[in-house]
Write a structure and sequence with these properties.
The structure is a homodimer. Chain A is of the alpha+beta class. Chain A has a single domain, classed as 3-Layer(aba) Sandwich (Glutaredoxin), CATH 3.40.30.10. Helices cover 53% and strands 10% of the residues of chain A. Chain A has a four-stranded mixed β-sheet, with helices on both faces. In chain A, helix 4 packs antiparallel against helix 5, helix 4 packs across helix 8 and helix 5 packs across helix 6. Chain A is globular. At the A-B interface, helix 1, helix 3, strand 4 and helix 9 of A face helix 1, helix 3, strand 4 and helix 9 of B. Chains A, B: GO terms for molecular function: isomerase activity. Chains A, B: It comes from Reyranella aquatilis. Chains A, B: InterPro entries: DSBA-like_thioredoxin_dom, GST_Kappa/NadH, HCCAis_GSTk, NahD-like, Thioredoxin-like_sf. Chains A, B: This is 2-hydroxychromene-2-carboxylate isomerase.
Chain lengths: 208, 208
């Protein structure tokens, strides 16, 4: 048993993924489980299925943001709602994220971009967020954008999205371990448990 | 703080609600929190929003059933997949459930109907499930169906669905406490924590 690597699939336009991006390094350190960060383009899958789950003003969108707000508060993660949603250019955010993962600075970029989005109200993937996040982590904006938007990197993102489709991902973040998919920031603990024990352990709350 | 009653909103056509219906009495006993069982017609809200989340053969439907299967196994809840879905007549199941809640035998009916659906493959709300579940709990089929499908009970279900809409419910089961909505069987523990403490307590998993 004891597979110690979890594929962490996400799209940088995903709101709940703010929680995951902020807490994943701590979870990895606390549990000893490694995560492979894999950006993909969830919007492509939504478009293929003719479905966008969070239209502006819908009850589901309102619930989604309240849920994130509560969970951020419980975890001590700063958040300043409302934030712009959906992102005007999640594609660029994902392309930069993927390039960064391959070059080694992707996690820092993703976390910087999410902080600006959810704490300062700047949409990820466009300026001023894009320039400021890259500057913060010491990456040259022109070089990064040139490589990120080149055909090779676009093809790489498409290939990752193809994998995501083939394994049946339905949302972001998703954690995949041992062929099992766990969808949602709130399933991170389940994925960790599965990685360790090949099963879930669900505790029933007891009187306290 | 310490509100000790949680409104448990559900529709009897909901798959994840199988888990909740099976474990809720144990959770109530273990935690001292009371639950008010409130059936409503989620299908009406889906229809209004032009949206059905689980089309046959979709990745989301496949994920949903695998998720339920894993969680049932972890909790020791018997399950025999595949089961018929969606229900051909969830309306009747909800009407009977609501009548039963008001007459005092609803919880027994709901659990009996779910067991036949998820353990024996009989859709809830139609025969043989309907007759057998009512017989099991000692209710007369003709009397129950006559009252359940009468205008007064239909109006009562519509009124509950109106409340569900007005508080922004987006799925089943949903737990409402103190004006806060927690959607999903996997949020039951959060609702219990909120009922006790007015906040969430999210543990980070630690190395074991």
């Amino acid at each position: 048993m004891a597979q110690r690597v979890i594929d962490y699939w996400f799209t940088t336009g995903s709101t709940h993924n703010y929680l995951t991006a902020m807490r994943l390094p701590d979870v990895a350190a606390a549990t000893g489980v490694a995560f492979r960060w894999r950006p993909f383009d969830l919007r492509t899958l939504f478009d293929e299925r003719g479905y966008f789950p969070f239209p502006k003003g819908s009850p589901k969108t309102a619930y989604m943001f309240r849920d994130i707000e509560r969970r951020a508060a419980a975890r001590g993660i700063p958040i300043a709602l409302p934030v712009p949603y959906p992102l005007p250019d999640s594609m660029t955010a994902n392309l930069v994220a993927l390039l960064g993962i391959r070059e080694g600075w992707g996690i820092d970029y993703i976390r910087a971009a999410y902080r600006r989005w959810f704490q300062e109200g700047q949409p990820a993937g466009t300026d001023p967020n894009l320039s400021a996040s890259l500057a913060e982590i010491g990456q040259d904006r022109e070089r990064v954008l040139s490589l990120a938007t080149a055909a090779a990197n676009r093809d790489a993102l498409t290939a990752e999205t193809d994998v995501a489709r083939s394994i049946g991902l339905v949302g972001s973040p998703s954690f995949v371990v041992d062929g099992e998919v766990f969808w949602g920031d709130d399933r991170l603990e389940d994925a960790v448990t599965w990685a360790r024990h090949g099963t879930l352990a669900c505790a029933t709350p007891t009187r306290d």
